[in-house]
Design a protein that fits this description.
Chain lengths: 303, 300
């Protein structure tokens, strides 16, 4: 108790708790009203059957039980998992591979390359979607035009309208958005690694590949973690891109969880049900982020 | 997350970390490696920007010119498409809406983040950890977790179809990242600096604005450009809370436009260019800040 007491009174002049609260209040109040409160409301809605108009009816875990049997939700969830391959695995693997091939010495004009590689990060996903819908357009899209121009007419496809190819086609846009981000992270990271570590590995007779495994990969631990968390979350919550390119079609082949939430809440008046999907999505994102960050902290502790 | 974000942005990278080390002894393997490096970087740089270049070119071209060769230059560099998109396509109005939303969000969210970040970094008070972690939550959760009640709350207060319906939630989301960001910055200021000011009779408010803020410009600028891009590009919120066409922001306007005029490529390209141009401009001017901010563990 004496300890606690001292903590509470141990302020320097002008640092009374009330002062601190005054600094925090304006920002936190608006945050509480427009973010914190809605999070709790979403949780609450998820226990009700509600169409948004009539009186909500408390139905306990009924929405969650329905979720377990909802084929469309399962399709959406599976599609999000497949998109992980395109949004997360491909960009990071590609960026690591390229980073391994690049020189570790001074690259002239690197800032120009960095700036260009980063452009998709700055762009509205709606613009990205519009651009790629055009590129993929079956009749006048540059992709099919290019294929025809080099005699590969039989390869031309209605990419976003094809049952089997639509999801990979959307996924490739995700890969395209993400790889530059990962490359910029990794190039900067590699140049921070102590050159002595590479020299020591060489003295031990390590080849290029072994140097990559023994020095580069561990040295990029932080950067890989950031790339993982960022792209995993992007894949799990992807909405804008799918909404603009396919709206989940054809025949739900590109339906994703975020779009399913939107459709249920604002399309077909299943508000409580949509809230339960939102809760599941949020929990998945928090758990995935937590796991990646914990793994990284553990590996940092071992190193 | 706090820890992670400090690993990269916290310590300013040594000057050579981003530009590479000095030249090693030249030799054949070194030259090959350099050549490979430039080839790879060039190829992937092109893949990243060519889609935007062809749409930018298309904005100046006619239908036939686009059909003939997507990479070809327009015969006349005419702004006719952009003018049409601006007036007939209503992008002028969308642009206006976007500016009306973005400007207050960036200014107010920056100000509120500076204040709360300062308190979390330099003051001790009960519940500070709890409050801080609840702010962190807003930085990690997806928009879908709040959008449904947000819609009904805004409806209750008759705020649907107003600029407020976008401005207020966007400030709230921004403040969560901004507080984290400014706290990171203010935590690094040496205590002696603040003690010296306190001894001179400066109160916390004066210390913040006279001692700390003059050095905070890069941190505030990074935060500001991130707020700008996030708000400018925001799609889900306007999609849900806006139905009046005149209040649509640019990304929302473009999405609806594409739904209706899929085949009018020159006009759509011009519209996309109008949406993209402001972010590109800010990016070109402040790219260092963008990259620093987005690679420092920003999860959004």
């Amino acid at each position: 108790m004496p300890n606690a007491r001292r903590r509470v009174t141990g302020y320097r002049p002008g640092e009374r708790p009330l002062t601190a609260y005054l600094y925090i209040l304006p920002g936190f109040a608006i945050y509480a009203v427009f973010v914190l409160l809605p999070i709790l409301q979403t949780l609450r809605y998820s226990f009700y059957t509600w169409d948004g108009v009539s009186d909500p009816v408390f139905t306990g875990f009924a929405n969650y039980a329905d979720l377990a049997k909802d084929d469309l939700f399962h399709i959406a969830l599976r599609n999000n998992l497949l998109l992980l391959v395109f949004y997360t695995l491909f960009p990071i693997a590609l960026a690591l591979l390229l980073t391994a091939l690049l020189t570790r010495y001074r690259i002239r004009g690197l800032s120009l390359f960095r700036a260009g590689l980063f452009v998709p990060q700055v762009m509205s996903m709606v613009v990205v979607g519009v651009v790629w819908r055009w590129i993929y357009n079956p009749t006048f899209g540059p992709l099919n035009q290019g294929l025809r121009a080099i005699g590969l007419d039989s390869w031309a496809r209605p990419w976003l309208g094809d049952f089997r190819l639509a999801l990979p086609a959307v996924g490739m846009i995700g890969t395209w958005v993400g790889y530059g981000f990962a490359m910029v992270l990794f190039i900067a990271g590699v140049q921070r690694i102590d050159e002595d570590l590479y020299d020591a590995a060489k003295l031990d007779g390590a080849g290029e590949w072994q140097q990559f495994l023994a020095v580069t990969l561990p040295g990029l631990r932080n950067e890989i973690t950031i790339a993982l968390v960022t792209t995993l979350i992007a894949a799990l919550r992807t909405f804008d891109l799918v909404y603009v390119t396919t709206r989940g079609g054809p025949a739900n082949r590109t339906m994703v969880v975020a779009l399913d939430i939107y459709r249920n809440a604002f399309g077909i008046g299943r508000v409580g049900y949509a809230a339960s999907i939102a809760v599941v999505l949020t929990v998945v994102i928090l758990v995935v982020s937590y796991v990646v960050l914990t793994l990284r902290l553990r590996s940092a502790a071992e190193a | 997350m706090a820890e992670l974000s400090n690993t990269l942005d916290g310590r300013e990278a040594p000057p050579d970390a981003l530009s590479g080390r000095g030249q090693p002894v030249a030799g054949a393997p070194f030259r090959t490696r350099m050549a490979v490096t430039y080839v790879i970087l060039t190829i992937f740089l092109l893949i990243a920007i060519v889609p935007f270049l062809i749409i930018a070119l298309a904005a100046f071209k006619t239908d036939e010119e686009i059909a003939r060769n997507v990479f070809g230059l327009p015969s006349v560099w005419s702004l006719a498409n952009v003018k049409d998109a601006w007036t007939q396509g209503n992008f002028g109005q969308y642009f206006r809406s976007s500016v009306i939303v973005v400007v207050p969000v960036v200014i107010v969210a920056s100000l509120l983040s500076i204040l709360s970040g300062y308190a979390f970094a330099r003051m001790r008070f009960p519940l500070s950890r709890l409050l801080f972690f609840s702010l962190l939550l807003g930085f990690m959760i997806p928009g879908e977790a709040v959008i449904i009640p947000l819609y009904y709350n805004l409806r209750t207060f008759d705020l649907l179809d107003t600029y407020w319906a976008m401005i207020l939630p966007d400030i709230a989301f921004s403040v969560s990242f901004g507080t984290l960001w400014m706290r990171g910055f203010f935590s690094q200021v040496p205590q002696e600096l603040i003690d010296a000011a306190t001894v001179d009779g400066s109160n916390s408010w004066q210390t913040l604005w006279r001692i700390l803020m003059p050095n905070a410009q890069p941190a505030v600028l990074t935060m500001g450009v991130l707020f700008f891009v996030w708000t400018w590009n925001d799609f889900l919120l306007p999609l849900v809370v806006i139905s009046n066409e005149n209040l649509r922001t640019l990304p929302l306007g473009l999405a609806f436009f594409q739904g209706r005029y899929t085949s009018d490529l020159p006009l759509m390209a011009a519209g996309a260019a109008i949406v993209a141009l402001p972010t590109i401009l800010v990016y070109v001017l402040l790219q260092r800040h963008f990259i620093r901010g987005l690679t420092s563990g920003a999860v959004k």
